[in-house]
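Hey Z.,

So I finally got round to the flavin mononucleotide thing we talked about over coffee. Here's the setup:
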Amino acid sequence: MTTVLHLDASARPGRAGTHAHGSHTRALTHRFVERWRAARPGDTVIVRDVGQTPPAHVSSDWVAAAFTPRADRTTAQRRRLAESDALIDELRRADVLVLGVPMYNFGPPAAFKAWIDQIVRIGETFAYEPARADSPYVPLLADRPRRTVLLSARGGDGFDAGGEMAHMNHLDPAVATALGFLGIDGLAHIAVEHQEHGGEALAKSVAQAQARVDALVDRWLHLEASQAPSAGEHEDRAIAACA
Ligand SMILES: Cc1cc2nc3c(=O)[nH]c(=O)nc-3n(C[C@H](O)[C@H](O)[C@H](O)COP(=O)(O)O)c2cc1C
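And the result:
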């Protein structure tokens, strides 16, 4: 069985095309997950809505707790890290990570950045080993999750690689860098553009993004079917992730 982590970060609760003033990123993540579910109804889907329920911002207590060895943490420190523990646990359980993240002021919404700050944690999702010659930073999620897609939306256009505004896109590189630091590589990127322009330009962009989502889901479903790991391999990975 495969586990899909479905995360939304838009401040808008409804979906474009279904609700008035709805979110395009929510429409794309919904489309992805529903297509996946239709093909694999037995899979588990974890829903994490940081747009509606943002994680806490990192505080001085949080930092002190995270840098205290696990065995030495006080009850209050363990409590302070409970949210981070839960978010990291979801990530470790996920085989497929579906991120719906709108562009706000050229980067991710603060709620999504708060999620990133909760999941990038020393000793949990990366390790620091100063004696290592190549790099002291060791990613600890190198095989969890196995496939990740960033479904984005922008009011303007030209933010994709090679576009006129690509140099102002600080969202896609930020997500790829933070996840890559943990070992989550090979991010797929799909975005709706022209939300603020509307009309034909938006309709065309939405149709293109939908077609790309469908094609990506079908490709990954095919890979899941052809590369399904044995139960033993699943267990090995789970043990390695928790070690
Ligand atoms: C606070 C805020 C900041 C935004 N900043 C940008 C921006 O920097 N560039 C851009 O092209 N669109 C920007 N937009 C437009 C959004 O990217 C666009 O509305 C997108 O569709 C939002 O995603 P959603 O539809 O999933 O809610 C911004 C919108 C909001 C609400």
